[in-house]
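Take our chain:
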Amino acid sequence: SFGVIEQLRASRPDAKFLELVHRLDRETSGLLMLAKKRSALTNLHEQMRDGHTDKRYLTLAVGDWKNPRQHVKLALRKYSTPDGERRVSVSPDGLASHTVFTLLKKYPNFALLEAELKTGRTHQIRVHLASSGFPIAGDDKYGDFALNKALQKADATRGALKRMFLHAHQITFTHPETGKIMTLN
């Protein structure tokens, strides 16, 4: 019933200031960056806004991915469904967005990709892949729903996929106080 920042604050009551620098979709695992000072938060937000950070994700795309490296530039528009759920679609009147996908490994009917965000739009990786015909395995909003159901019921020897296969695995930024370039994995 609590968000991640509320849980972190509750676990560190001595921290005078604790704020999320960026967000992840609820279904996405991986790195989250927190600031312990307001000056660090504003500095890191500025770096992100100006494109001076490098965020990388790992994802398992469904389909026969061909290109070793592929740029996807599709404008994205946010909207709400009748029940209030946030969704994103490709639309000419949307905001410019750019993701670079690098093929890491091919499997039968799947591809392990690294996604490099050039812009940071809501559901960007998910919608760019789904709109390109390669939905993320386990994505319950933009994915292949029949395949997701089959993956959830996989037998014990193969293992079942119980969640979306999208993981924030690396971020590079300049430390707000030291000026040192840092890469976290």
Q: What stands out?
A: The radius of gyration is 18 Å. The chain has a mean pLDDT of 92.
